[in-house]
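Reading is simple: the token line describes the chain's fold. The lines below illustrate.

. . .
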Amino acid sequence: MAGSASSPSASPTVSPDRWTDTSRSLHRSSSSAARKAQQAELARQARQAAMAHQAHQAALAHQQSESEQSHQPTLPRLPTRAPRPSKAHRHRNYDDENSWACGNWFEFLLVVALAIILLIGALVLVLFWVLYYRGGFAWNENPTLEFNLHPVLMIAGFITFSGFSMLLYRVGRCCRRIYVKLFHTIFHALAVPCVVVGFIAVLDSHNLANPPIRNFYSLHSWMGFVTMGLFALQFVVGFFSFLILLCCENATAGFRASLVPIHATFGILTFMLAVATCLTGLTEKTIFTLGDKYSSLPEEAFILNALAMVLVGLAILLVYAVRRETFRVRIANIISQRL
């Protein structure tokens, strides 16, 4: 019993080798975690350094480009041109510039107002001259008074109606093109009977005079023939190309577009020639009627000179209004927007 009591009954003691292995494994695991943390920190620092280097390089490149641009001379900016539409759908575009300054509006309104006043004033002056100084009108029964129809009707046809027809293209651009062309044709059509009756009146007054007066001998009559011929040619070509050919608009668009500058140029030439013919006719009539009294400048001579200056002013204003590029391009949308 005593021998069994003295035998060891407590738990067995751990050997020193086992404690050493445990401490070694714990040390290895802690050192491995430290190395991994150190490697992760190094990688993060390397990434930050690379990003900082890239940002520095980008800043240097931006500074270099700004310095190069500052040293380069600045060239004037060339105006860009809008692409032209295709030939199949080529239409005039008035939407490029929609606003005008006060100076542009003043110029346009001044030119149009003066042109309208002078167009009406020319007809009023010639009527006043014929009715007040020349005794009015008559037909075959009085060849002298029948002649008075000639200056009135020629100025009404070649100057007033034709001038309004030309001016209509600058005032009526807010309307559809077909309406502008229609009114343009109507004003020219009104001029046709005036020219025809005025021509018959001067022929009758010469043939029925006692003694008869020779026809077609003066510079005025020759210029009148050329003016009437150009006017008739313009009317026929314009009516044919811009109204009749509209029934097949797409097929004739190119042909009609090629006629536009020709028609416009010969229209201005015809009007200028009509003004010159009227001036020669007034000079001829003044010399034949007043004779030596013309040098003393009586009232009738003053009226005739004023009428001649009105015709000269119309020649300047209408050509300016028709050929002015600003009036030709911008006025359509501006007027339509205001209305």
